[in-house]
Amino acid sequence: MMKYFPAWSVLALCIPAAAFTSVFRRTFYYNDDKLKDLTIIYAADAAAEINDHNNNFPPANLHQRNIVVLCQNVSQDVADGIFDVNNLLKGRIDVLARCITSALWVSNRVRTDTTLFLMLSPHNITIEVQGSCVRSLTPDERTMALYLQRTLWRCGKDKNNIQQQKGVQELSSKMSTGSGPDSSFTNNISKTPRSTYINPKSAPMSEEKRLRDMRKGRDAMIHRIRISHQGKSSLPGFILHQDDTLQNRLNKLESMSSGEGNGIWMLSETGDPLWEVLEDQQQKQSNCATKISTGQNKTTTTLIVGNQLGYSEDDEKLLIGSPSVREVSLGKLSILTSQCITITHHYLDRLFEIE
Fold first, then answer.
1. In the CATH hierarchy, which top-level class contains the domain 64-157+235-351?
2. Which residue, 246, 221, 233, 245, is CA-closest to 321?
3. Can you give the residue ranges of every domain in the chain?
4. pLDDT digits (tens, 9 = 90+) for 118-128
5. Are 68 and 303 contacting, i.e. CB atoms less than 8 angstroms apart?
6. What is the separation of C-alpha 315 from the centre of its chain, rounded to a whole number of angstroms?
């Protein structure tokens, strides 16, 4: 006679088996995911070590290059590092970030033979970015802006409090005088022939509120910047030079451009075509290549470009009057500063290519 097991006994046997299977699968997949995470971490570390190892070797082109960007009409807040990295158009921080990317970055590595100088006028401040010393540099504009901000903020932190108080005083003076776009509103209304009653405090109060909001926003931004850069060391390869005029920088560049290099080039729409200038260097290129391959000599070329505003009158007179500066042109069409740097790099790479 066959005995039948009740239904509840079958369920009692199946539930523990299913639970055990679920726990086993979770443990297996957890360990598998953990193994994948460790593999990714180890691969990233290995890639970073390989990248650092490759950056330690000099490139095949040992021709040294200096790129000077003359940045005109830079605001005091930008010179002090007080700007929003999420709004790079304000203060044209995007132009500075693109210049760094175009000057130093190639595919998967940084140019170790290039040094960039960002001269902030009229503050006589120069940011030097050495391609041979930078580490953990990424080509996105926001990271570049953060690096610039930390360099300017750390070196100018002693005067940031003074500039903050100065900004508050300027806003307070505007609030007290009632200057601004809304202050002329009541004056224009008072000149109208109609006898309309206007509250005299309505327009100044709106201007006062706007300036008060501006002051609060500025204070909040300074607080965020101070917290984000507090306790962080200076970045390798980023150097800030204060009281650095164009004449002093030009004297240093002239001493660096000695030898068989191309000297100092000033980009201008009315200069000599760059490809014709490089044709004159073809004969020097063969002799220079022999000396570079044996390590006997190094050449240096300096490129001077303006920002989106071009050159100032004083800077243009100084550069044109210098005997070591030669005007070169990439064409009659005005292009972006970052594009000028990229195209000049391309021509120099072709000229000094060593097979």
1. alpha beta
2. 246
3. 7-57, 64-157+235-351, 159-228
4. 999 999 999 99
5. yes
6. 23
